[in-house]
Design brief:
Elements: E1 3-5, E2 10-11, E3 29-32, E4 37-40, E5 44-47, E6 55-59, E7 65-68, E8 71-75, E9 77-80, E10 83-86, E11 96-99, E12 106-111, E13 117-121, E14 129-133, E15 139-143, E16 150-153, E17 155-160, E18 168-171, E19 176-179, E20 182-186, E21 189-193, E22 200-203, E23 206-208, E24 218-224, E25 233-236, E26 239-252, E27 257-259, E28 262-266, E29 268-273, E30 277-279, E31 282-285, E32 291-295, E33 302-304, E34 307-310, E35 316-320, E36 329-332, E37 335-337, E38 348-351, E39 355-359, E40 362-364, E41 369-371, E42 379-383, E43 386-388, E44 393-394, E45 405-409, E46 412-414, E47 420-421, E48 433-435, E49 438-440, H1 500-505, H2 511-529
Parallel strand pairs: 1-3, 2-4, 3-6, 4-7, 5-8, 6-9, 7-10, 8-11, 9-12, 10-13, 11-14, 12-15, 13-16, 14-17, 16-19, 17-20, 18-21, 19-22, 20-23, 21-24, 22-25, 23-26, 24-26, 25-27, 26-28, 27-30, 28-31, 29-32, 30-33, 31-34, 32-35, 33-36, 34-37, 35-38, 36-39, 37-40, 38-41, 39-42, 40-43, 42-45, ...
Length: 530
């Protein structure tokens, strides 16, 4: 066993590359000196299989480089103070990195200098650069006290970290660009920074079987706390799958776009999103009472064009943390599907804690109540939503305040198990606007415990149901009829003449005449009905 240092730039297997002409092998350690680039060109094993903290390969200076273009097995750390890369050898990928880690030990790819870089690149989804452990009972991870650019493209990162050890962590002042990468059987993936100029790109990635239980039970943590002045921050086309419940956390000042992600039992809960856009995603949840998607209160987050599916007891699809003072959250154009699950508690689609808007959403298959203003500071606008074969809308649960509901308007409830209702803690304000709502085929008297409404406001008293408050009566513009009949402005129709002869009989000889005829008819109708 020997400690061997590079003599010049060259291939690992060449004797001229190393001092004394000895090629480092199993049981040896290797150091790459300043200005030297060593390329692993043939299958190589190096290191002493020591305890945690033992280095197998050391890149000693910022100008040192290791290129892995063939399988490298490391019995110890890769201590990187320079440039570590590998995988893309022309049009094929023959490079890989395997840590041979003894049971109870943890090896790592460490980043020891600011600016030290890591760049692993495969060729395709089926020809990847693989970073893994030999499965001897230990694990490995990537991280360090310093940082430099991290780039992973077409990489499989396998069996890294543990329930208590992050698999990949970093941040600081360097760019992160991870694309087309699979993380399988890994601890938490964690990045954070207060730098306003760095990139964070996490795109077209697949996360399977997350292991973390000690760091918030998370599959990912992204915490960038300073608004960007340049650079890109993107989280898109990510698939995350777990057989048990896992959290995610995304706290990004200045915004990040989460686009076209598929999350199975791996939610973004714990009030995680801040100043972000969450769109075109699918969240599938199979167990428990959790927030599938958590929002920072007043964080100016937009949640739209998503599908939420659950099959569990008391789901909270979108919840907010209390506090914050930025601006309102908006939730719109989403589909919530409860899969017909019936439990002791139906759950809630949106639980605002401050200012929030919930509009143009669809609630089906007993997903839950549209909104629940259980927090005393909630100020909610709920309009243009459709709830079919599900539950109604809650105006308070355990606490209440006089300014909770700004607007509840133009909502459609069809075949509901309950209507708009509130618990006794709810305090209604005089400016409350609950109008132009439509109710059809309401089937159950359950939960019809209503707030007191003044005559100037509207509420629909369902036929045959008992309304607690005598003043909770139907408003002028509410309806129990088939929704098509709920109109505030009548439609005018001018049938197109079927022939030139018919047009002549009507006295219409041009498009302008047709328009005048319509305007005259509308004026006549208005005089008659006003």
């Amino acid at each position: 066993m020997a400690a061997i240092t590079s003599a010049q730039t060259g291939n690992w297997a060449a004797t001229t590359t190393w001092v004394g002409g000895v090629v480092p092998g199993d049981g040896d350690t290797a150091t790459i000196a300043a200005t030297h680039t060593v390329t692993v060109d043939t299958a190589t094993t190096v290191g002493t299989a020591g305890a945690t903290g033992t280095a197998a390969v050391t890149l000693s200076a910022s100008t040192s480089a290791l290129v892995i273009n063939a399988p490298l097995t490391a019995k110890g750390d890769i201590a990187n103070s320079g440039a570590l890369s590998g995988g893309n050898n022309g049009t094929t990928t023959s490079g890989s990195l395997t840590f041979n880690t003894p049971s109870g030990s943890t090896y790592k790819i460490s980043v020891n200098l600011n600016g030290s870089s890591i760049n692993f690149a495969g060729v395709s989804n089926t020809t990847q650069f693989v970073v893994t452990t030999s499965g001897l009972g230990g694990n490995f991870f990537l991280g360090g006290s310093y940082g430099g650019p991290l780039t992973l493209t077409y990489v499989k990162w396998y069996k890294s970290g543990s329930a208590t050890q992050t698999a990949v962590f970093g941040g600081g002042s360097y760019n992160v660009n991870i694309t087309r990468t699979i993380f399988d059987t890994v601890g938490c993936i964690s990045f954070s920074s207060s730098n306003a100029t760095v990139d964070f790109i996490f795109s077209y990635c697949d996360i399977r079987n997350p292991l973390d239980t000690a760091n918030g039970n998370r599959w990912i943590y992204v915490g960038y706390t300073t608004a960007p002045t340049s650079g890109t921050r993107t989280f898109d086309h990510v698939t995350a799958y777990s057989t048990v419940a896992k959290n995610g956390y995304v706290l990004v000042a200045g915004g990040i776009v989460l686009d076209t992600c598929y999350l199975y039992n791996t939610m973004l809960g714990a009030s995680s999103l801040r100043q972000s856009t969450f769109k075109n995603n699918f969240l599938l949840w199979n167990t428990g009472s959790y927030d599938l998607l958590g929002l920072q209160a007043k964080s100016n987050t937009s949640v739209y064009d998503n599908a939420f599916w659950t099959n569990g007891e008391n789901p909270h699809y979108i919840g907010e943390a209390t506090g914050g003072a930025i601006s309102a959250n908006t939730v719109y154009q989403n589909v919530f599907d409860g899969n017909g699950y019936v439990g002791a508690n139906s759950g809630d689609l949106y639980l605002p804690s401050d200012v929030g808007t919930f509009r143009n959403n669809i609630n089906i298959n007993k997903a839950g109540t549209l909104c629940n203003t259980m927090y005393s500071g909630a100020v909610l606008t709920a309009k243009n939503n459709t709830s079919y074969n599900s539950y109604g809308m809650n105006l308070g649960e355990t606490t209440g305040a006089a300014t909770q509901i700004a607007v509840a308007r133009n909502n459609l409830f069809v075949s509901q198990a309950s209507g708009i209702y509130s618990n006794s803690a709810f305090v209604r304000q005089s400016s409350f606007s609950m109008n132009y709502n439509a109710f059809y085929n309401m089937t159950d008297a359950m939960n019809l415990n209503h707030p007191t409404l003044s005559p100037s406001n509207s509420y629909l008293a369902f036929p045959g149901k008992t309304v607690v408050s005598a003043t909770a009566t139907a408003g002028t513009n509410d309806t129990t009829l088939v929704p098509r009949q709920a109109r505030t402005t009548p439609r005018l129709s001018l049938r197109r003449p079927r022939s030139l002869q018919a047009a002549c009989r009507l006295g219409i000889t041009s498009t302008s005449q047709a328009r005048r005829r319509i305007r005259a008819g509308f004026k006549a109708w208005t005089r008659k009905h006003n």
